[in-house]
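Format notes (please read before filing issues)

Several people have asked whether sequences and structure tokens are stored in separate files. They are not. Every record keeps both together, in the order shown below: the sequence lines, then the token lines. Line labels are part of the format and must not be stripped during preprocessing.
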Amino acid sequence: MLARSPGKSGTVDDRSILTTEKINLQGALQKVAYDLFKPPKGSFMTITRLHDHWRVHEGVSFEKYQVTLKKRGVLGTFLRMRAFPGGESTVDLALQLENGVVTAAEPIQPVVIRGVPFLAFPQLVLTLKEHQLSSYARGLSRIFQSLVFLEQASRGTDVPPLDEKRALLVAEFMKKKNPPLAPGVRMPAFSLKDEKGGGFGPAQLDGKLSLIVVGTIHDERFRDVLAWLGRYAGEHPDRFAIATVAMNRPPTIDQYRNRGGTFPGTLVADVEQSVYETFHCVFTPSVYAFDRQRLLQKHLEPVTLTDYEALARELDAIR
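Then the structure lines:
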């Protein structure tokens, strides 16, 4: 049976979870539970929805279910994930996670994306089950997003340049969606390792004027900013504690060094982009200047970081 979950007041929640369904959800979840937990043939399991979680802006919803067999008690739990990419689409999966790893994926309904069957999608998810979900999920989403431009790129279609007006519109949209850090806020908490393996976070910058520069070596402007910061540090030794947060893997960093590139201050490799996300960064390179109490004084973006003189003027004004 499909049981109802208790409401917050301890009463039964009367919201039907079948109202938006076009399938026999009870039968579909029973089949999924058999595939996941493999009870004796002929068993009838009680499937209870524990809670749901909607991410409206991302077009995805989650429901957590508990599966119970009368003679055995609780067999386990699974998550139902539904995504709504628009059009004639059905993305309805049952997933199990253990310690941040997807260990099972079963279709509640066959996966169809905008009318195109994608029956192998659950197997695609399982090919990565040896890895932590957090280590690849965001990158995988970007790969799928990039496929939108594949056909256009193969044709070599001219793309209108991003002029200043359009760039400002993009910047405004992105910052409304993800508001940047405001001057005066305390440095957000983060915990990383520097290239020597030592711990690195806000505590390492306490009591110092500090600069945190975020970017990727693949970006020419980021490489320019690294050179300018190196020059500034040479001309103003001990003025700032500098941390370079490079969103690159060690081989890329080594290659950059072998070609003569240098990193001012402490180097921190942040492939997972944790600082980028924690700092609500939108455009890179970004330079964050904090005072001795770790309060943000300035946030410099590419529109400001045009040359060494412009950077030096901004840094000279920080006290």
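For reference, the curators noted about this record: The chain has two domains: 2-132, 181-316. Confidence is low (pLDDT under 50) at residues 3-20.
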